[in-house]
Amino acid sequence: MVTRLVLVLGDQLSPDIAALREADKARDVVVMAEVSDEASYVPHHPKKIAFLFAAMRKFAASLESDGWTVRYTRLDDSDNSGSIPGELLRRAEEVGATEVLATEPGEWRLISALEDAPIPVHQFPDDRFLCSHAEFDVWAEGRKELRMEYFYREMRRKTGLLMDGDKPEGGKWNYDHDNRKPAPDAITFGGPMQFTPDDTVVEVLDLVDRRFDNNFGTLHPFWFATDREQARRALTHFIRKALPNFGDYQDAMLAENKFLYHAVISMYLNAGLLGWREVCDAAADAYASGDAPLNAVEGFIRQIIGWREYMRGIYFREGPEYTRRNTLEHSRALPGFYWDAETDMRCIAKAVEQTRDEAYAHHIQRLMVTGNFALLAGIDPAEVHEWYLAVYADAYEWVEAPNVIGMSQFADGGIVGSKPYVSGGNYINKMSDYCKGCRYEIGQKTGEKACPFNYLYWAFLHRHRDRFGKNPRMAQMYRTWMRMSEEKRAATLDSAEAFLDKMGSGGRV
Ligand code: FAD
Ligand code: DLZ
Ligand code: SF4
Q1: Ligand 3 atom closest to Cα of 348?
Q2: Which of 133, 173, 369, 483 has the most crowded CB, counting CB atoms within 10 A?
């Protein structure tokens, strides 16, 4: 029988991935490749590249010890063709294969590259997810609005997670009402489990140091888990030490605490080192044994079987053009401080610094600090999308784009969110300690010293009054705006214009 190639991509590091299930150890050859095309479609954070290359190398070794034949291409190999289709062709010629088994990639770009590859590639559905494309389409069909909450309830029923017969555990589907506490004075969790680099990681760090030195982001110290066994330990550590407080402080932010009670497992889930089922079961078990309260466990499970699956459903349903949407017609360039943290806005400087150091920021930092600012300032959503895709270790288009284009920038016109996630400085002040020590004054609404979020918020609403003025969920804010005196409104708009002009001309803001 003719040998077939089995493609395993960098974010498909699961031993039961569809293409491997379809293949035959005795007959087929696994292809894995570190290639410049994948490493440079955006300037990925060095920690993200190092994590993936190290995890790929360790996964290839585990496949080999499991009896698979693996042809692994390292980035520095002299005959590396630089692309996934190129490596498939090269390996096919080497082993005499005429066909490739693959698992559908998480990005339209690569799906079409495989469709157009110079060798036939059979793409199997990626069934590491709870909801298939077809199932999501059935759920979405005929609905006026695709609200995550209703999708999530279906997923709860489907999985039986936190269900009491056909009723939700505790009587309510969603305990977010209990979950929005501001930042506490002290955090009892010391952060995610950190791992000392082993020989494979050290070798990869050396490569990344040499090849990606100019990319935004700090490579050292590198502490991520890079194999399944380590990722499992990181998960257990979170479940034991942080999950009980996860719900309460999910939305809080602290300048000197990067992780609060967050799991910091998205990079492991998205690369395939962990699966949604084992993560949710571990959380549900903690509830069942009385080790974590319902509000924390429900909130955590909702992020995974709710938001994560819903975002993937939207990405694949909306098609390849989704990342180019720009409903609000925003066109301003992404300011330089997203790359160098050189801004007096302390909240943004802290979020960017932590992103640079860890390739990580938690949800509210992404949504209500860097995302909120970009939306208020009218930044081109395509540039915002590229930034998020580059700088976070967990970023792949299927999950990043609906979060950025949809949830954060409202560039999809309201598919993901029924209203834009915008706020003035008060929200940030309530949920964080950023404002103490900021050059800007949170209590001031206009003028040189005022918090820019304050006037940019009103200027945003004013700019988009035709679109949002009739949105019942925003009516109260428009009434407040219209109740302000004409002088106050003019001063607010003047402050916003002066700020944006200064920022646009490269001045420090
Ligand atoms: P926790 O807060 O501990 O949550 C647990 C898990 O739930 C996460 O590991 C993640 O798998 C899942 N989850 C939570 N929220 C979401 C969500 N909105 N969408 C999908 N999964 C979710 N997440 C990514 O995985 N990749 C991205 O590229 C990404 N980009 C984002 C961009 C923006 C603008 C925003 C607002 C959110 C983005 N998110 C993204 C979602 C979320 O911020 C991260 O999943 C989360 O911060 C990861 O950290 P954690 O593991 O500590 O999560
Ligand atoms: C993100 C990434 C990077 C940086 N490098 C590679 C690589 O060299 N080889 C590979 O197979 N995958 C890599 N990836 C992950 C892919 O970009 C990812 O599979 C697609 O974006 C689809 O999600
Ligand atoms: Fe951010 Fe405004 Fe607070 Fe400064 S005052 S940290 S700019 S919200």
Answers
A1: 1
A2: 369
Q: Which residues pair with 103 in a beta bridge?
A: 124
Q: Helix, strand, or coil here: 121?
A: strand
Give the residue whose CA is nearest to atom 2 of ligand 2: 38
Determine the distance separating the centroid of ligand 2 and the alpha carbon of 231, expressed in angstroms: 19
Residue 92 tokens, joined: 């096919």
Rounded to an integer, what distance in angstroms lies between the CA atom of residue 21 and that of residue 8?
12
CB of 8 closer than 6 angstroms to any ligand 1 atom: no
State whether the beta carbon of 416 lies less than 6 angstroms from ligand 1: no
Ligand 1 atom 30: the closest Cα is on which residue? 400
pLDDT tens-place values along the chain, 509 residues long: 899 999 999 999 999 999 999 999 999 999 999 999 999 999 999 999 999 999 999 999 999 999 999 999 999 999 999 999 999 999 999 999 999 999 999 999 999 999 999 999 999 999 999 999 999 999 999 999 999 999 999 999 999 999 999 999 999 999 988 788 888 878 889 999 999 999 999 999 999 999 999 999 999 999 999 999 999 999 999 999 999 999 899 999 999 999 999 999 999 999 999 999 999 999 999 999 999 999 999 999 999 999 999 999 999 999 999 999 999 999 999 999 999 999 999 999 999 999 999 999 999 999 999 999 999 999 999 999 999 999 999 999 999 999 999 999 999 999 999 999 999 999 999 999 999 999 999 999 999 999 999 999 999 999 999 999 999 999 999 999 999 999 999 999 999 999 999 999 999 99
- Which of 262, 403, 410 maximizes ligand 1 atoms within 8 Å of its Cβ, making it the mutation to test the pocket? 403
User: Which CATH code, of 3.40.1400.10, 3.40.50.620, 3.40.190.10, 3.40.250.10, is assigned to 5-124?
Assistant: 3.40.50.620
Positions of CATH 3.40.50.620 in the chain: 5-124
Atom of ligand 1 nearest to the CA of 312: 20
Name the DSSP class of 419: S
Tokens representing residue 211 in the block: 């090849």
- Residue span(s) of the chain under CATH 1.10.579.10 come to 337-504
Q: Is the domain 133-191+242-315 a CATH 1.10.645.10 member?
A: no
Whole-number Cα distances in Å, 222 to 50, 236, 273: 9, 20, 18
- Within 10 A of 500 (CB to CB), how many other CB atoms are there? 19
Which helix (H) or strand (E) segment is 100 a member of? strand 100-103
Domain 337-504 indexed as CATH 1.10.579.10: yes
